[in-house]
Specification:
- This protein is mainly α.
- The protein has one domain.
- The protein contains seven helices and two strands; from the N terminus they run ββααααααα.
- The longest helix has 43 residues.
- The protein starts with 8 loop residues before the first strand and ends with a helix.
Length: 229
């Protein structure tokens, strides 16, 4: 039994190698890209629409509402980034019901990469909303002494995102593998369904936390203006 898809090597030449994490990461990305192209190539504004377009609209509207409920006033600006995070993690979780599929989110390298995306996206969106000077000044509020603590907070919450997602996804996969060895019939089916539910929940939690961090970075300017008025 392997602890991480990193340990499954499909091809290697010297220090170059393709493991299960890389292979299934690109497979998930390919599925998302191909699906989006196929669904959006014949969009319709009429009352009669395809089932796939209806499903896409439901997903987009739902994600938009969730972003807006967190506090971001223009959810469409963040839909591409936050929606992609959610769909990638959710599809990785759904793939666990397919025999032989190794969820890339079961690797710490993948979850760390997702968390780093959030780490980079937060200041980018914050600077776009507030401007560079105003955003950087938020690290020194209410006093310059808070600067190192605010920086540590940014790094620590990124690590927390990665470890939380990795731990939950890997634990579900390990429990399923153990039960499959001991009782190869009923319990693995139940645990697969439970793992699928857990994976969707983890995708939602990761999505919400990323949205909260971005909302906090873009809301500072609004709070400052309201306090001054």
């Amino acid at each position: 039994m392997h602890l991480s898809p990193d340990q499954i090597i499909y091809w290697q030449m010297g220090f170059l190698k393709i493991n299960a994490t890389i292979a299934f990461t690109w497979l998930v990305i390919l599925i998302l890209v191909v699906t989006s192209v196929l669904v959006t190539r014949k969009l319709s504004t009429d009352l009669k629409r395809s089932r796939w377009q209806n499903l896409l609209e439901v997903v987009v509207i739902t994600i938009n509402k969730q972003i807006e409920e967190v506090g971001l006033r223009q959810p469409h600006k963040y839909l591409g980034f936050l929606g992609s995070l959610f769909l990638f993690i959710a599809l990785s979780a759904i793939g666990t019901v397919i025999p032989g599929f190794e969820p890339p989110t079961g690797s710490l390298s993948t979850t760390a990469a997702l968390a780093l995306c959030v780490l980079v996206a937060v200041p980018i969106f914050g600077i776009q909303e507030q401007g560079l000077k105003s955003y950087l000044s938020s690290y020194t509020k209410p006093t310059i002494i808070m600067l190192p603590f605010n920086i540590i907070s940014e790094v620590s919450r990124t690590l927390a995102l990665a470890v939380r997602l990795f731990g939950n996804m890997m634990s579900g996969a390990m429990i399923l593998a153990i039960l499959l060895t001991i009782t190869p019939f009923l319990f693995p089916i139940v645990m697969t369904l439970l793992g699928l539910l857990t994976g969707i929940v983890q995708a939602y939690i990761f999505f919400v936390l990323a949205t909260v961090y971005i909302a906090a970075a873009t809301r500072t300017q609004d709070n400052t203006l309201s306090e001054s008025s």
